[in-house]
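Chain A, query sequence.
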Amino acid sequence: MTDMRNHVMLRSSGDTALPVRPAAWSAAVIEQLEWESFEALCGAFYRVLGIRAEIARPGVEGGVDMWLFEDGAAPQRCTAIVHCRTSNVALDVKAVRALHGAMVAEGVREGILMAPRRFTHKAHSFAAAHRITLIDGQHLVGLIEHLPPTQQHALLQFVGPGEWRTPVCPLCGKEMQAQMSQRGPRWACTDYPECSGKLPMGEAPG
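Chain A, predicted structure.
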């Protein structure tokens, strides 16, 4: 396999807003990407590396499952399964176990779990024992920065134009808005009450 090892926030007067389209990548930019943009970025990253990346299906745990194909002798053989998961907290071992289960079911030996924030210690331990690479936001920025400048800039299309930190409703596709609930901040569909779509801050629909 090709060696790839070499917040969403409420708008208030106290928030430090990022520009509509940043001039360069950073961990803060990755963390504030709405879930669809993050998933699209993950797929585009592998494609600029020259790896065929196909969306397999919506992930059962939320997010996107992606298959990578880079075996020239057997171009239809999946060489790695990628899970893209967004969360407002560090991903725990449950997400890594789910990826490992998919690898076993499909007979694929390599797995990659991508998330904008960090992973727990248990997640790292399980991944290391099961041929799974964990890529958080800071790691992804480092990988992008190793690309030629033209490719780095091309990937910025997933950060705009428009309000790239605001997700779209998973039920109707309209823009969502920040809302405070009894359990804390969340996203709610702007078409309420016609649509009751909601999302936790920083998470993809499950």
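The beta strands are 52-58, 64-69, 80-84, 110-114, 132-135, 176-181, 184-189, 198-200. The two ends are 29 Å apart (CA to CA).
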